[in-house]
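Course assignment 3, question 2. Fill in each field.
Student: A.L.
Task: Predict the tertiary structure for the chain below.
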Amino acid sequence: MAMKIKILELTDDRARILFEDEGKTYINALAVELINDPGVDVAQHRQAFQFSDPELVVTTIGGRPPLLAITDAAKRLSSYAGELLRQIETIDTA
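Answer field:
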């Protein structure tokens, strides 16, 4: 199932993205991974109400485009999950 996002704000150094019908778990992991990027100043999960759609706010420094930072962080998370699956499959077949 494809993730549905809505870009609420996009400038050269700031992005606000709403993740429709998503829980906060992935958004929190993405925000934590974004903080590891030296070109990211702020990465924050926001959720107005417990059952509302989560929002990710990212601000960057040094000319780093915020959507590129988000894309790179998502790719790293995907890579970590893939590595975990490979390790589990190795244990399962041993």
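Instructor remarks: The longest strand covers residues 4-10. The radius of gyration is 15 Å.
Grade: pending
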